[in-house]
Design a protein that fits this description.
With 172 residues, the chain is an all-alpha fold. It has ten helices and no strands. It is globular, with a radius of gyration of 15 Å. The chain starts with a helix and ends with a helix. The structure holds NADPH dihydro-nicotinamide-adenine-dinucleotide phosphate (NDP) and zinc ion. NADPH dihydro-nicotinamide-adenine-dinucleotide phosphate binds next to helix 8 and helix 9. The site of NADPH dihydro-nicotinamide-adenine-dinucleotide phosphate has 19 residues, from helix 8 and helix 9.
Length: 172
């Protein structure tokens, strides 16, 4: 419990000036918290390394946080999971999206859970609170790309996969 609260406080601080892309500009931290809620409440995940990695999953990708900083605060195992679900931002955008599809089959079991929760959360956002400047076509292309990523990591988290599939069926 203590390390989980520490992760929430760490991520809330790192994301404090960021907002999501929905019309209401939701505080960014709502998204990592949503991942942990999906994992714990909807799938019964109790592995604290997975839950911490879910809370921290966008800190390296979207803030100035370094892997060394995460390792010092949360250890190597949590940092490894976060790094597995972190895009290489030096790549062009389309290459990053292709890389997520290509790397999905090689993710560890713990990273698969975080990746599934991330795509479930983002698909829910696209359905309920999409970025206002996204066309229907863009929402559909985004949903289909999420499915290509998830199709590459199936077989280990059947409950999460079923939740993802339900969301995908409700896509725009
Ligand atoms: P982006 O990568 O720009 O945005 C999606 C990411 O934004 C999510 O993965 C999520 O990432 C974050 N995010 C923040 N707020 C929201 C929200 N409310 N809803 C959903 N995601 C949110 O989008 P893409 O480049 O992936 O564009 C989607 C698709 O559209 C692509 O497949 C691309 O090919 C296509 N496209 C179409 C265009 C068009 O005009 N038709 C133009 C550009 C792209 P995180 O969890 O990391 O925060
Ligand atoms: Zn995310």
């Amino acid at each position: 419990m203590e390390v989980l609260i520490k992760a929430v406080a760490f991520a809330a601080h790192k994301h404090k000036d960021q907002r999501r892309k929905d019309a209401g500009a939701t505080p960014y931290i709502n998204h990592p918290v949503a991942l942990a809620d999906i994992l714990a409440s909807e799938c019964g995940v109790t592995d604290v390394e997975i839950l911490c990695a879910a809370i921290l999953h966008d800190t390296i990708e979207d803030t100035e946080t370094t892997p060394e900083e995460l390792t010092a605060a949360f250890g190597e195992r949590v940092t490894k999971i976060v790094l597995e679900v972190t895009d290489d931002k030096s790549l062009p955008k389309q290459d990053r999206k292709d890389a997520q599809v290509a790397h999905a089959p090689y993710l560890s079991t713990q990273a698969r859970a975080v990746k599934l929760a991330d795509k479930i959360s983002n698909l829910r956002d696209v359905i309920k609170t999409p970025p206002p400047d996204w066309s229907l076509q863009r929402c559909q292309e985004y949903s289909d790309w999420c499915k290509r990523v998830i199709d590459g990591l199936r077989g280990e988290w059947l409950v999460l996969e079923a939740i993802f599939d339900k969301q995908y069926r409700e896509r725009p």
